[in-house]
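Reopening this one. Same input as before:
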Amino acid sequence: MEDTGLYLDRMRAAAPLVHNITNFVAMNIMANVLLAAGASPAMVHAREEVAEFASLAQTLSVNIGTLDPAWAEAMELAAQVMNKAGRPWVLDPVGVGATRFRQEVCARLVDLRPTVIRGNASEVLALAGIAATGRGADSADPVEAAEAAARDLARRSGAVVAVSGPVDYVTDGEEGFRIANGHPLMPSVTALGCSLNGVIAAFLVGQPTLEATVAALAYYGLAGERAAAGAAGPGGFQSGFLDALHALRPEELTAGARISRA
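Same output, byte for byte:
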């Protein structure tokens, strides 16, 4: 990928309305992240309106972090609307291996053919049906351990699969990319991983799925690097990260993205 910044430029020009069904912890942070990036966020999860609202949105992100039966139904309804309209949506299978309920809900959501599935290595391994050692939303597996599972899951689901970690891995089942942007402070701020899903969803609007996902991860990681340069710890990093997302220019992303074929 030579002009990674072009994907950021197109996303900002579209300023897409991103429908997010996410967890309670992530809502505020995720909304601020999307605004800083240049998208328009909405948090709507009530069964009574979720399908109607999804029809207005250009893209959707689904995060099962604080799952309950009503939210699970809302996620499926919104995904069905996106599929019918030919619009993209992103699934984050948070802690999928932790409980049977999460496994059952994620199996139904994967059957609805998300455009992108993004999780940590343990989540991707669990979703692919391979035993993993993760605890809840934390990953105890390295990204490398999930690469084969990610390729298999991509082929079976039709989704682009992104495995987050110190070096991210993204594949459509045939091609693969590694993205080395990011900083160790990023996991120290809650819900930054959840918020990434909305950014990926925004990048997908009107753009090729694999390349847009790779560009979104590079953009997010590079903003993290810039925020960390001026932060004494997680508190300063969080505010600096929003500033970095907002300030990062497309040409700077093209110059700073560390992307390689895998």
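So the earlier flakiness isn't reproducible anymore. For the record, The chain has one domain: 5-261.
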